[in-house]
Amino acid sequence: MKTLTRTETVRLPEGHSWLILSLTALSLLVIGAPWIAPHDPASPLDLVHQTLRMPGVDHWLGTDSASRDLLSRVLHGGRTSLTIAMLGTATALAGGVVCAALVQYGGHWLASGMLAIVDAMRGIPRLLMLLAIGAAAGGALTPAPLAVAMGCLAVPLVCRVIHAEMQQLSVRPWSDAAHALGVSPVRTFTHHMLPHLLPMLLGLAVILLGELLAAEAALGVVGLGVPEPTVSWGRMIQDALPDIARAWWPLVVPCAALLGTMLLTATLAERLNSSLVIHD
């Protein structure tokens, strides 16, 4: 049987290397948190003399109300928050791709049933479902189960987005040629459809990363995120709220880290959307 020759190439965006370098540096920083952080993020330094110390030479970002070094906590918190967001993003993309492929190639009845389920799940706000899951778990979800739950709740949206793109790609000449040559749906998807989806998937991954960072922070603020002694940016924000009248820095530090990372992801997603294209 004849096979189609793929000639498409993916062109990466040019002139935006600073964005990618910034995200890479941020990732390396939080990955190396156990070796870079000057103190244990969960252990108090000195409850008498080191409580709510302003940023200075001894503690660059200050200390919190429990006498814990904020630089150490924001590094470890970023490690936790980004790990949850990245694992959740991977879960959502994997589930979304599989569901979209089944809808596209699984036949009328399977497609209709899956789309009905997807649309029903999309009708329920994801944050509300996350809050319900967190409350049911008593705020004791560890990072891995929390990330998987967040990713699974994003699958319906990802499935719809990918399926819409697949419908547009299915009318391309190469798709008609594959069908005429008798190429199997699995081979058509893996060898021809998926390469054309990669640019969109990359942009979607960056968008999801920012959204899941915000979702994790929201859960942490209301006390339904990862439990102590695990630290995350959302948990740091929750811990800082009771002392906002006495000290601003325990709240500003995690908020700045979270907002800065979300701004980076949003900017990168916008640039990828306009610059990352695939050429036949």
From TrEMBL:
Keyword set, alphabetical order: Cell membrane, Membrane, Transmembrane, Transmembrane helix, Transport
Subcellular location: Cell membrane
Domain ABC transmembrane type-1, residue spans: 78-270
TM stretches of this protein: 18-37, 82-103, 123-140, 197-227, 247-269
GO BP term, pick one: transmembrane transport
Regions annotated as coiled coil: none
Entry-linked Gene3D superfamilies: MetI-like
UniProt cross-references to SUPFAM superfamilies, sorted A to Z: MetI-like
PANTHER family hit by this protein: D,D-DIPEPTIDE TRANSPORT SYSTEM PERMEASE PROTEIN DDPC-RELATED (PTHR43386:SF1), OLIGOPEPTIDE TRANSPORT SYSTEM PERMEASE PROTEIN APPC (PTHR43386)
Protein family (similarity comment): Belongs to the binding-protein-dependent transport system permease family.
Protein name according to UniProt: ABC transporter permease
Organism of derivation: Gemmatimonas aurantiaca
